[in-house]
Design a protein that fits this description.
heterodimer, A: 196 residues, mainly alpha, Four Helix Bundle (Hemerythrin (Met), subunit A), 7 helices, B: 181 residues, alpha/beta, Rossmann fold, two-stranded antiparallel ribbon, 6 helices, 20% strand, globular, disordered C terminus, CheY-like_superfamily (chain B)
Chain lengths: 196, 181
């Protein structure tokens, strides 16, 4: 049998499954470092990436403000049009984006509050029956956190605000999901990402 | 010890959020990648995937039209026109174990929860480049081996049955996919 080329496939067929093995098609991107070779110039791609990210940080405040405006607009649409498939999806995506990127932008408390809002949208059996203030308070809190900025005593106040909102949201979700064990389990399960 | 030559890798990043795409592009370029393509939804991504045959796909989960999970399911079709074997890294703000399981069962290779970190992204890329897993095809799954560890201490249900395997060699599907584009 000839030597396998990168990308060549070997299929082993068993009664219940096949195991498909490829000669690594990305081997061309791997370079072995020779131990006795003269030292290569120090190269730390992660440090380079951190520096590149830091160079973008001047824009993070504006980006965060845009994300907040998008969330406020989605909330306004929901209030105006009622809960529809589109209005629910737009609000969820806006909150979900803030949950994912606000920490990178320097607003971890906003990310945590957005995470709480995502849980409400995802796990409430009927979003139209969620008290208006519960959603409105989350949106307002995220806007306030971004407006005030992070750091020092403000961060402590923001964390306290987030804990309070999260507590109210979790109590609500636990009550409305008491007959929906799969949602209850998801609500109570720990996150893979440490909470703020 | 290995080092990755990022300039030999072609990436497709899929995220509806322009800020996250900018961050990802910045990180990949600073790692040394030159070829980075971008799509803002699953449908566009699928088209670009067939056209550019990226080595690695990094996708968000929540997107309009069709999402990252559906995108992974569409790519992991053994009879698909494009390359069904490319590594898929799911980069998402979803952070529940249930979601990780769903992504794994859709054929996602690596899962990375936001907030993004340079180190986390680098390690996921290193994993898929240096330690690719074999693919498994069953009646209802096609994707990278979901068992990352092959220790004798496995205590879950045994769904696979062995026996003598028929082994055949096939030419590279990746080459075929690239010829077709």
């Amino acid at each position: 049998m000839s030597k396998p080329r990168p990308g060549d496939i070997q299929v082993a067929t068993f009664p219940t499954h096949q195991v498909i093995t490829q000669a690594n098609p990305l081997r061309r991107a791997m370079r072995r470092l020779v131990e006795d070779a003269p030292a290569e110039p120090a190269d730390d791609p992660v440090a380079r990436a951190e520096a590149a990210l830091a160079s973008l940080s001047g824009e993070f405040g504006d980006w965060m403000a845009e994300e907040c405006q998008r969330l406020a607009a989605a909330h306004a649409d929901l209030l105006r049009d009622g809960v529809t498939k589109d209005s629910r999806a737009a609000l969820f995506r806006a909150a979900h984006d803030i949950k994912g990127d606000a920490t990178t932008f320097g607003f971890p408390a906003a990310a945590a509050t957005a995470a709480s809002l995502c849980r409400i949208i995802e796990h409430a059996p009927d979003l139209a029956k969620v008290p208006d203030e519960l959603i409105a308070n989350h949106v307002a809190a995220i806007q306030a956190i971004v407006r005030e900025g992070a750091g020092g005593q403000k961060s402590e106040v923001q964390r306290a605000l987030n804990r309070k909102l999260r507590g109210v949201a979790d109590d609500y979700l636990a009550a409305v999901n008491r007959d929906r064990p799969e949602h209850l389990e998801a609500i109570l399960a720990p996150s893979l990402v440490p909470e703020e | 010890m290995y080092r990755i030559d990022f300039n030999k890798l072609r990436f497709l990043i899929v995220d509806d959020n322009p800020h996250m795409r900018r961050i990802l592009r910045t990180l990949l370029h600073s790692f040394g990648t030159r070829e980075v393509y971008e799509a803002e939804d699953g449908a566009t991504a699928l088209e670009m995937y067939s056209h550019y045959s990226p080595d690695i796909l990094i996708t968000d989960w929540e997107m309009p039209i069709f999402d990252g999970l559906e995108l992974a399911q569409m790519i992991r079709q053994p009879e698909a026109k494009g390359n069904p074997y490319a590594p898929i890294i799911m980069l998402t703000a979803h952070s529940e174990k249930r979601r990780v399981t769903l992504a794994r069962d859709a054929g996602v290779t690596e899962f990375l929860a936001k907030p993004i970190s340079s180190k986390g992204l680098y390690q996921r890329i290193l994993n898929v480049v240096a330690s690719p897993r074999p693919f498994i095809r069953t009646r209802n799954y096609f994707g990278p081996d979901r068992r990352r560890n092959t220790t004798a201490g496995y205590i879950g249900p045994e769904r696979r049955h062995g026996g003598e395997a028929d082994i055949i060699q096939q030419p590279s599907l990746l080459d075929k996919a690239r010829v077709n584009t």
